[in-house]
């Protein structure tokens, strides 16, 4: 089996070749599916992420979650491989952060677990049909989810990012569900 590094590189190259129109269309389909999930509708809080580069465009989902009355938080990543979530209110209230990825302002409300259900949306580069995940290689989500367990975790990606099987490690976090524009696992 190929290494995680090789697989990550191949899938990123493929994803980066997608046209902006195709990415927006597929992202819209993914967001529609997310908003229909029972776990999303029942959640009080959404821990999201801001899609960057050729990732699924998530800002419309985050804005819909705000409109739906949910508390929405997105990560601020640190050089040490850790991240903390801060309140997202709108795309206008974002700044450039780690590796130029948009993130909430550090002056925004910081996430802390309160009463209520937490729905976590996570990115990834490659997934397999058993929901194993290869991220970007820094372990941000594996570390965060080692100390915090949300009520439901869903990964979003494009169907081309799902392979039959990928190499895994014991500490890898497996989302409860993976949603693409055409299939779910």
Note the topology.
Blueprint lengths: L3 H13 L3 H17 L1 H5 L2 E3 L11 H9 L3 E7 L5 E5 L6 E3 L5 E3 L13 E5 L3 E3 L4 E2 L5 H8 L4 E5 L5 E2 L13 E3 L6
Parallel strand pairs: 1-2, 1-6, 6-9, 7-10, 9-11
Antiparallel strand pairs: 2-3, 4-5, 7-8
Helix pairs in contact: 2-4
Whole-number mean pLDDT: 95
**Continuous helix count:** 5
**Main β-sheet description:** 6 strands, mixed
What best-fitting shape do the alpha-carbon axes yield? globular
β-strand percent reads 15-25%
List low-confidence stretches: none
Helix percentage range: 25-40%
The number of E-state strands comes to: 11
CATH class: Alpha Beta
- Physical arrangement of strands within the biggest beta sheet: 3-2-1-6-9-11
CATH topology: Rossmann fold
- N-to-C SSE string, H for helix and E for strand: HHHEHEEEEEEEHEEE
Class of secondary structure makeup: alpha/beta
Oligomer: single chain
Tell me what the structure shows.
The protein has helices spanning 4-16, 20-36, 38-42, 59-67, 140-147, and strands at residues 45-47, 71-77, 83-87, 94-96, 102-104, 118-122, 126-128, 133-134, 152-156, 162-163, 177-179. Strands 3-2-1-6-9-11 form a 6-stranded mixed beta sheet. 28% of the residues lie in helices and 22% in strands. The longest helix is centred in the N-terminal third of the chain and has 17 residues, at 20-36. The two termini are 22 Å apart. The protein contains 5 helices and 11 strands. It has a single domain (4-179), classed as 3-Layer(aba) Sandwich (Rossmann fold). It has 185 residues and is of the alpha/beta class. Helix 2 (20-36) runs parallel beside helix 4 (59-67).
